[in-house]
Each structure stands twice: as structure tokens, then as C-alpha cells.
Amino acid sequence: MQRRIVSLWFPRLAAERSLRARPVDAPFALSVFDRNSERIHDLSPSAENAGLQRGMTLVHARSFCPDLLTRPADPVADQRFLGLIARWATRYCPWVGLDGRDGLFLDITGSDHLMGGEAPLLDDIRTRLARAGLTARLGLADTPGAAWALARFAEGIAPPGELLSRIGPLPLTALRLPDPACTALERLGIATVSQLHNLPRATVARRFDRDVLFRLDQALGDSPEQISPLKEEQSFAVRITLPDPIGLIDDVMAASRRLAEHLCDRLEAAQKGARLLRLTFRRVDREDHAVELKLARPMRDAERILALFERGVEKVDAGYGIDMIRLEALELEALGLRQLDRAEGREKDSLADLITQLGNRVGLENILRFEPVESHIPERSFKLVPAAYSTPATAWPYARPRPLRLFPPEPILARGSEPPSRFRWRGRALTTFETEGPERIAPAWWEDNESWAHGLRDYWRVATVQGQRLWLFHTPQHPAWFVQGEFG
Amino acid sequence: MSLPFSSVYPLKQSRAHEVCGDGALAFAAIAAGEVKGPVVWISDNRQPTVNPEGLVPYCDPGRLLVTRTGDQLGVLASAETALRSGAAGLVVAEIGGPIGLTEGRRLQLAAEAGRTTALLVIPEGAGSNAAETRWRCGGVPGPGSPRQNQHDSTHWRWSLIKNKIGTLSEWVVRWDAASHRVIVVSEARG
After folding, report:
1. Which of A10, B22, B88, B97 could be bridged to B40 by S-S, CB 3.0 to 4.6 A?
2. Domain membership of residue A276 as a residue range
3. What pLDDT digit, counting tens, does each position of A60-77 carry?
4. How far is CA B131 from CA A242, A277, B28, B165, in A?
5. Termini Cα distance of chain A
6. Is B51 close to A405, i.e. CB distance below 8 A?
7. Which residue ranges does the record assign to the UmuC domain (chain A) (predicted)?
8. ipTM exceeding 0.90?
9. Looking at CA atoms only, how far is residue B50 from chain A in angstroms?
């Protein structure tokens, strides 16, 4: 089947996007900072009629057209907008690719009959885009190259097989050639595509870049050209628009329930679980309120998700009412189907829910678990890891009694290598009653640890008459005494 | 008339209890070892967490879910959330300052709603009247107490200083590692 390609060109994409958001009547231009001055990036037809053109400095343009209105350009948003149009264009055919910064290719092979033929299809595209406030130029031909040329230089349809006859009279720039090549060819008196086509190929190839023949072949269909369709992004977002605004918590939760069920069905079909969810409420006064939910485990259980959202939803100020609710899964993780376990599964679920609830209050990174570390240094023998991203440690080694609370060493006044019989600690006078020790711990010489600068430590467990049981150590290499822990 | 230890310990379930004194952490660690299910241990950032190696004789540190919050309000709010969810076997909250009757009562209600026991580690004299029981724990001082020749034969004096449903008393107890439980050494004088 003969391929049929539509090329869509938006000559004023950036300006029209900006005008769609905030229309103005006056001559309008978008400015961009380039080569040390503000220059015109894109402009409206009325500004063009006033004699302005792209690339002109703004100062210059204002002297031509004093009532010119300008806004800064946003190329990133323009590109995103083009992506949206590309997605919209899939209503005509499944195969839509981006073409530079302001154009699209549509491979309508075999799908034009759905719109009643090629001409009605182009008319439909044009009308709908015009309704959206966009100027579009359309070309339809057998190859992307020819369609591109038609869209820019001679809008219309090239019937199947008639490529050269339609694009032959067009200037060389219609072949997407680089400017130096065009200039060089024009100096030789070659101004149109058909003239270039009539030249012997060998001489053109020798005299010019290979690009020249390559582009010509692409336009005439002798050399293939692919259209890369956009990657279909699986977005897990659902929304509900309400005819009348709602404000009661029960109503909002009921609407959210419908969204959550729908979203979870989709997550299940994709075998994924959400890790971060966002519920957005749009109020009638156009203000958005978003509630985010970070989950301790990926999940797709509508009931549990709703229960976890409840606390956040209660805080939303409904104002004059909410008329749109949107639920998005922002972070996903693979979550396969699994066999349900009767008791154990539920217990794990409730713990994960608890981690989520606590995490949304104090931050998921503050919900921690202990994990043993292989180190003989007491303060380094464990670490805290976020509970949401770990599983409980199973076996804890038990070697020697350790205090229940460790703190940074606090110096006390004492002498000798035996624990003092009386000392002051944290403002209290303590009398030693019983001691046990010493337990010598050597610093880890392979680690650079300032708190161990005093060298070896002889640890003593000291019970006092006052009831405290403390962990003292003596540093024989630099004689001093410290308290490092409390046994409780 | 003396109050039997077994009537007040293990701690009554689905209630909020308080413990203070030098031995409060050991009391909490022993209580954590006696419940089934995960233990949520909430403290604020101002002091270091409990040392898991010190917990090993009493309970498995892997069961602990440590929650760190910025201030005391966060500790109370997290404790209430954890109690209400009912997922934990015990919620231990280390509280730095005095708490009011409202906060204490809220925790009590949350403990009842979630069927979870709460244990607040409080400074001396900082409890709330809503607590079910309050304990003061300390090492046994003075000569005459048995020698601590083994690490697991430490003696504590556990005094019941508030009891909603009974009289007060105190006991000298020790931890028995072999049977993994608390053993009353002697009925101390009140």
C-alpha cells in the first residue's frame, strides 16, 4: 500500500500558545535573549503586518510598532504543547511523530477513509486547530519529505505517485537542505527541485555534500524515511469532573473512592503498585489543593489507599466547593500478583499502613529500623535504616552487656585506672557501690574517628549507691575518665 | 494487705501506662519483650535513640520501629496514630516534658480504640492523671543487695506510684534470662 503522509506545520506555535492562555488585541511578540539583546522569538500576524520579523531586536521592533506587547518565550512549554498536539493528532491515525520544534508528521496510510477521504481529513484538522486558535499549514504526499515541502511552500495534496510534478517547482529550501548547500546551488543557477533532479547524480555527489542527494531521494521516495511515533506513556491518573461543586467530606471521599477503584484496576492490569500518590482538588474558584501520600510499600488496594488519604483530605479547605478531583500515581513500583496469605498478609499490611501514616506525619525517612553492623566499636555496631525500604533484621548478635542508652562520652573528674569511688556526673554526686570490668576496646585504626583520639578504652560497669548503673571508660593512653552510657 | 505483683504486671492491655526513674528504659525494654507483634518506639531528636545492643537481652531489636520526631507534640501525635492503627503490640513514647490531662486522656482513648498498650517514658513527676498505672524504677542501692556477678541478675526496685484500680506497692525484681521474664525477689516495704 502506498504510504500517505501528512505534514503539519505551525508557523506561529509559540505566539499562539501564549495568546491562547491570555489573549490580547494589540500586536504581540515573544522575546528571547539572544546575542546580547532581547530579540523577537515569535510574533502575531498583526505584528508581522507592522513590519516586524523574527530575530529583530526588541528596541528596533518598538520603534516600528510602539504599541507592541511582549512576553518572554518559554521553549520548553512550547515543546510540551507540541507533544500535546501530537497526542491529540492520534485521533486521525495511530502513527504520529514530532518534526522539529514546530511540526508533526502523521502517517495516515489506510486511515483517511475514516474521515471520508484525504481532503475532508485535512479540512477537519484545519478546522479543529483553527477553533483551538492555532494556524496550521498542511501538506499531504507519499513521503514525509514531500509532505514537509508542501506544508511549507505549497499547501495541498499531492496525489499518489505525483511527487516530482508537485514539488518540482518549489525552491531548494523545500528539500530541508542546509543553507550553505542551497546558496552554493543557487550560485550555479539551480533554483528549483526539478532543476536539481535533472542534474547528473554523479557530479552533484562529487561537488556537494552527500546530504543534498539524500534529501532529494527522501522527498522523492527513493530513500526511506522513518517517522518515530511518540512513546506511549502509561500515565496512571484518573479524574472526575462534577456537574455541581461538592464540599462535604463524605461526598469528596465517595468521589475519591470511584477514582481510587478505577486507578487500582489499571494498576492491577499493569501489575504495578503506587508508592507516591497525589489527590488534587480543584475548587470552583480555580484553586488547586493537592494532598500527597507516600506509601511505605507499593500498593493498589483502593480501600486502604482511601483510608490513608482521609487525614489529608480532612485538612482541605473546600471553599465554595470542589468540582474536579484528580488522582495520580506519581511513583510506581512493580507489584506482581500474589497469593493472599490469610493472617500474615493482613498483619504486614496493617504495619505498612502504620508506617505510611506515621511517615506522612513526620516524614518517611524518620521511621527507622535497627540493623546490626559488624563493628566492635559500641556506637558503630548498629545503624538506622528507613523502615519503608528495608525488612526487619533477624538475628542480633549478643556478646557482652551493653547499656540501653549510649551518648557521646561525657568527661568526669577522676584519677587512676580503677573506677573512682565518688564522682560527679550531670550535676549529681554519685558514690560507687559495685564495679565490673575492665573490658578493653581498641579503636578501629583503619577508620579515622576523632572521638577515639584518646586511644584504648577500658570499659567498666559501675553501679552507684544512688541507683544509677553507668558505663564508664578510662583511657590509659591519655589518662581520663568518661561516662558513655546508662544501663537503666 | 499486699498487692500481688501478678495483678499489675504484665501491664494491663489496651491502656496507657507511665514509667519514670533511672530504670525506666529497662522497664520499657522488658515490657517490649513481653508483647507479641512489632513495637513502635517514638522519641524526639534531642536525645540518642535507645541502643539496640542493650535491648538484646530483653527483646529482639529487629521488632522495633523507631520513629524520630522533631518535638514533643510530634511524639504525642505519632503515638496516638500508632495506637489507633492497632498494628503494633506496644507503643513506647519517650516524653521529655510534662504532659497535660488532655494529652494523657487522648492517648488513653487511642489505646482503647486500637487495642494497643501504650507505655510513656516520662521524667520524674511529669505524668498525667489519665494513666492507668505509673511506675518508678531504679537500681537497688545500698549494701546488702545481692552481688551483680552476672549481667542478668541486676536488681531493680519497681514502685507502683499510681494505680487507677487498686492500691500501691513496690517490689524488688530481677530479670531472669533463662526463663526470659521478671522474677520478684522480695516484697519491698512500702
Report:
1. B88
2. 237-344
3. 999 988 888 899 999 999
4. 48, 38, 15, 11
5. 85
6. yes
7. 24-150
8. no
9. 5
